[in-house]
């Protein structure tokens, strides 16, 4: 596989972690790595600098240091940097459109106190044309296990691009793919007068749900026969089931749907996973062309 993986840098530790993750992913895929920073001189925003040239030197030094660090760790990797004079949101959206994936730190780029994902990153996640991976600051101590790629699957609703991304990521890692689907007994059955009968109905519904999940995954299992797949079906909240399945994962993949009239938003499950998953999270638009 070839192409380009882009990491957005802003000088924070979380952005540095994103660059490191992107470098490892680029080496794994045989891709080039592009490190970018969006910068617009606004003297009223940075009163302690007061000097356009000094701030620009700091930005260029930050990019150079990031490139040097990555090059030391991955000497064979094709790494380029670019300082783009523009606002962050349009810059990052353009990068997401041209790259195989955009990688960002889960804090920084406009983070508000109390929020894991910054306001600018949230705008990028809502509107990006391609996959965006959010990476948190590395944990100290024992390295996190990375034995599985976890993907949330809603049969009949998930786009091909999401499953393509998840299976490809598992194949590149030699990892197991855990396909997770959460479901619940329809309210009309759970609270009907014959409440004992729906227990048997629910068992039948669970079997139907498992069959739908298997049917949804079959084309991708055929395309990626080397990927071991665990099909997990549980009752409960989709976000809770997905989060409970992801602590040992190396990557969690979720979809993002586009809505009518050009409106794009993050669904509640994707939003919850972004804020609470301990692993990197890839948000893939359901309607983007499969890679």
Keywords, separated by commas or semicolons:
291 residues; alpha/beta; Rossmann fold; 2 domains; 10 strands; 41% helix; 20% strand
Notes on the protein architecture:
The protein is an alpha/beta fold. Helices cover 41% and strands 20% of the residues. The protein has helices at 13-29, 52-73, 88-98, 119-127, 160-173, 187-190, 197-223, 238-244, 268-276; strands spanning 4-8, 32-38, 79-84, 101-105, 132-135, 148-152, 176-183, 229-235, 251-256, 281-285. Strands 3-2-1-4-5-10-9-6-7-8 form a 10-stranded mixed sheet, sandwiched between helices. Helix 3 runs parallel beside helix 4 and helix 8 packs parallel to helix 9. The longest helix is centred in the C-terminal third of the chain and has 27 residues, at 197-223. The model is unreliable at 108-116 and 139-146 (pLDDT under 50). It holds the Pfam family Usp. Belongs to the universal stress protein A family.
- Fraction of residues in helices? 40-55%
Note the beta-strand portion. 15-25%
Element-by-element helix/strand order: EHEHEHEHEEHEHHEHEHE
Radius of gyration: 21 Å
Domain UspA: 1-135, 148-285
Protein name: Universal stress protein
Family: Belongs to the universal stress protein A family.
Pfam families: Usp (PF00582)
Task: Set out the fold topology.
Layout: E1 4-8, H1 13-29, E2 32-38, H2 52-73, E3 79-84, H3 88-98, E4 101-105, H4 119-127, E5 132-135, E6 148-152, H5 160-173, E7 176-183, H6 187-190, H7 197-223, E8 229-235, H8 238-244, E9 251-256, H9 268-276, E10 281-285
Helix pairs in contact: 3-4, 8-9
């Amino acid at each position: 596989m070839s192409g380009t993986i882009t990491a957005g840098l802003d000088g924070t530790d979380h952005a540095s972690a994103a660059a490191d993750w992107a470098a490892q992913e680029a080496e794994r895929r045989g891709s080039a790595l592009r490190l970018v920073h969006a910068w617009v001189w606004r003297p009223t925003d940075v009163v302690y600098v007061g000097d356009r040239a000094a701030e620009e030197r700091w930005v260029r030094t930050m990019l150079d240091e990031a490139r040097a660090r990555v090059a030391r760790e991955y000497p064979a990797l094709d790494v380029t940097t670019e300082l783009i004079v523009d606002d962050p949101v349009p810059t990052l959206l353009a990068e997401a459109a041209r790259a195989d994936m955009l990688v960002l730190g889960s804090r920084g780029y406009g983070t508000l106190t109390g929020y894991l994902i910054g306001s600018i990153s949230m705008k990028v996640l809502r509107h990006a044309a391609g996959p965006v991976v959010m990476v948190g600051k590395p944990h100290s101590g024992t390295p996190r296990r990375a034995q599985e790629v976890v993907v949330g699957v809603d049969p009949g609703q998930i786009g091909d691009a999401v499953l393509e991304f998840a299976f490809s990521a598992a194949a590149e890692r030699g990892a197991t793919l855990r396909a997770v689907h959460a479901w619940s007994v329809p309210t009309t059955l759970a609270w009907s007068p014959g409440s004992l009968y729906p227990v048997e109905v629910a068992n039948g519904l669970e079997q139907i749900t498992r069959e739908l999940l298997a049917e949804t995954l079959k084309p991708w299992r055929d395309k990626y026969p080397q990927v071991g797949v665990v099909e997990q079906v549980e009752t409960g909240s989709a976000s809770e089931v997905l989060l409970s399945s992801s602590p040992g994962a190396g990557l969690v993949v979720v979809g993002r749907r586009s809505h009518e009239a050009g409106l794009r938003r993050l669904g509640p499950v994707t939003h919850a996973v972004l804020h609470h998953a301990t692993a990197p999270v890839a948000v893939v638009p359901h309607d983007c062309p499969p890679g």
